[in-house]
Amino acid sequence: MSASSRNIQTAIDVWTDRVARSGSTLAFRYKRDGSWRDVSWQQANGMARDLAGGLLALGLNATAKVCILSQTRLEWLLGDLACVLSGLVSVPIFPSSTPSNCAFIIADAEARAIVVEDAAQLEKVLPLVSPGKLEAICIGDDALLDHPDDRGRTCVKLADVLAGASAETRAAVRSLDDTLTLGRVYNRMHPDALSLRASAVTPAATYTIIYTSGTTGTPKGVVLSHGNLTSAVGSACRALTLRESDLQYLWLPLAHVLGREMAWAPILVGAPIAFTEGVLHIKDNLLEVRPTYMAGVPRIFEKFHAAVAQAFRQGSFVKRALINWALRVGRRYSETVRGGSRPSAWLRWRHRLADRLVFAKLRAKLGLDRCRFLLSGGAPLAAEIAEFFHAASLLVLEGYGLSETFAACFVNRIEKFRFGTVGPALDVIEHKIADDGEILLRGPSVFHSYYRNLDATAAVFDEEGWFHSGDVGHFEDGCLKITDRKKDLIVTASGKKVAPQELESGIKMHCPLVGQAFVHGDRRPFCVALVTLNEEAVRAYGDGNIAQAAEAPEVAAALSSAMDGLNANLPHYGRIRRFAVLPVDFTEASDELTPSMKIRRHIIVQKYASVIDRLYADDEHAGLVE
Predict the structure, then answer these.
(1) Judging by DSSP bridges, how do beta strands 479-485 and 467-476 pair with one another?
(2) Which CATH superfamily groups domain 489-624?
(3) What pLDDT does residue 619 have?
(4) For 268-286, what is each residue's pLDDT tens digit?
(5) Residue 372 backbone zone (phi > 0: left; psi -120 to 50: alpha; other: beta)
(6) Dist. CA 414–CA 5, nearest whole Å
(7) Strand, helix or coil for residue 299
């Protein structure tokens, strides 16, 4: 039965309908103290209602804003559900955000409460916490850090963080357990409070405010309604054919709109979610969970590809020969299927044999032996990577969307996919291409305004209600191919237009040593590139020292060869003529990357202006590609 036939119009409808239908069946899995634990829909509903009652007990009025500052975990979603059930508005903050970033969002959103993960996150916002102004709910206690922070700490203790706060501030900080207890008491004393709040929520009511990553300036708060959520999530479920028997492994940041859509889609269909232990545990978690689907950003699939390719190059001569044969068969099979033809009996037999001898073992080692598809979004995915995995019977479906469209508005389908594109439009999206190539969008999943920013809102909507996405693209056989961000297109000195993201993806695809790539050439005679090295390259060529690895002649030779391979398929004006290997990586902490790992181009141009100028001066330290 479809969502529309079940009269589902708000996030509250999605949740209460699912709890009523699925009750005691598995809803969520999470790992704690070395063991996976199961939570039913009824149990999750009980916790969400207790937390919702706790928020009301803090005196939060309807539509008050509640920030959530945490890694992806069950409690993050419970916080979101609590806001939904109590008529409040959730405002996610990326867990990697700096204190100043957090302060901006809290102030701009006019937040009245914030849910933080642990002591490290609480420390960022504690100066803003005050009774009646900003109440804090802390999920955990001490924070164990993956790397030492700028103070050399590997553990941030909650007692130490609170010790420096005033008594008034400490009074506005509560543990999650205390808030749940407070909520249970409140709900008993006010048994109709949540239902009254829920009855006032309409499809047009604000569900969440998601702040854009701010690649070019101040982040803007994207106001998304309950109607936006139900339209987007329902359409995505239909496009991806999600079903109750599926199991998702969820590691994407829930502060990212794609992670948010991936959290709500299985709720709509009744499929369980297994929450990640963290990015460092993805490999082990996949082997334990064995999901039927998973969403990720291109970087995770690039890392998978690099690791698999490296493993395939190792072993005996016989093993490598078998793998190379299997890859040739897999590619031939993939090309035949993608070309719309039925593979011959001989090719089908060889593909079954290749799968049994090589690919099935690979999928099992990745924990993807039950996987129906993988979903890639958030940035362009190199077609070659999707083709590689399809040869191994792993289908990566690339999609496209923005915070303003509640994530996906185009996505490839299991039954219709074209690598190098983001697929056909979802069934709730109207679209057209403007004269200058910009993608225009309209439909019930598209937002209506930026929070308290009329000028920014007016700048992206025309008089016919079309949202101007800022992305440039064209259609190939009914599938949208994204060229680049309109504002990022390079116009060379000769007037030729070059799409930098496509070149940057190509560099990473052709050279497995590269971590990040940045292409420049605006108003210049040719294009150049700045590259950083990944962890594997730093270990192999610098013994852990990135500056030493950047000077290694083997690195320069590998990059020169990679650039030659990339340039061979490019027009003369789009080729990368010179490059430099930076002795550092691009990071969010240094402001070169957004929280969603997008490159801040203007920052890189400013910071590395002298390096770029030397490339155009044919400096002796620049890599030269003939």
Answers:
(1) antiparallel
(2) ANL, C-terminal domain (3.30.300.30)
(3) 43
(4) 999 999 999 998 999 999 9
(5) alpha
(6) 25
(7) helix
